[in-house]
Amino acid sequence: MNSGRGNIQIKFEFSEEDFTQVSEYAARMYGLNIPESKRDLIYARISRQMRSVGASSFDSYFTEIQKKESSFESRKFLSLLTTNVTSFFREPHHFDSLKRVLRDRLEKPSRKDRFTIWSAGCSSGQEAFSIASVVHEVNSKFADSSVKVLATDVDDEVLKRARLGTYNDVEVADLNEVSRRSLFESYSPNASEYQILPNLLNLVEFKNLNLVKPWGLADKFDVIFCRNVVIYFDRETQQVLWKRFFDQMNAEGTLFLGQSERISGGCSSHFESVGFTEYRKIV
Description:
Layout: H1 16-30, H2 39-53, H3 58-67, H4 72-81, H5 92-107, E1 115-120, H6 126-138, H7 140-146, E2 147-153, H8 156-164, E3 166-168, H9 177-183, E4 193-195, H10 198-203, E5 204-208, E6 221-226, H11 235-247, E7 249-257, E8 271-275, E9 278-281
Parallel strand pairs: 1-2, 1-6, 2-5, 6-7
Antiparallel strand pairs: 3-4, 7-9, 8-9
C-alpha cells in the first residue's frame, strides 16, 4: 500500500463485493438506488473520506459505519452516496404556480386557518427559502400568521448549513437583483457572503427526516415540493412514496416533482397533472 505523504495517495481495495455491500446498505437505510455505473465515483468519495480519518481498509471502515448508524461518520457516509445539487428558484415555473395557489387561498380564507408547505429533500435550504420568499411576496401578514414551511433532509451536514441561512457569492451568482433583495439582508455586488432575511429564516423549520422511514408528521400539507429526490429511488420505493405523499396531503393539495420525475403506476390515478411536473391530489 502506498504512503499518504506528499502527493502520493493511499489506495484501498474496493471490490465488486464491497460495492454491492454499499449499494445494498444505501437501499436498505435510505431507499437509494446506486447503479454500477456510479462505482468509480463512489469509490473516489469513500476513499477520500477514509484517508481523511486514517482508516486502514474498507472492511474496517464500513463495519464501523454500520455499527454506529447515528454517529457523525455514518451521517458523513450518507453525504458520500448522494449529490446535493440545488439553487434558488430552481425550475421557476413551480414558484409561479405556488404564487397562484397562495393567492387562491387568500381569496378563500374559509377553507382552513393554516396553509402548510413541505420541502422534502431540502438540501442546503435554497428551495425552502425560495418558497418562503414567495410566501412573503404574496402577502407578508398571511405568511407571518398562518403559513408553516417545513424543510426536511436525511443529511445532517446540509441541514446544518441550511439552518444558518448563509450563502456565498457563487451560490447567488445566477440571481437577479430583485431576487437577491427578496432573499438577503443586504445586497452588494462585491459581497462574498449573503445572509437570508430574518423573517424568511424564522418562517422555515428544518428537520432531519428519512423518506423511506416512518415520517411521524402531525401536519397534512397543501403543497409538497419533492424535486430531484425520488429519481434516486428504485421503482418500488417510488410507488410507496407516491401513496405516502397522497396520504400526507390535504384535499386538492399540490405536489411538485423534478423535471425528470413523473408519477406512474397505480398511484397515477390518485393525482391529476396540472402543469409540467405539477400534480394535484384527486379527492
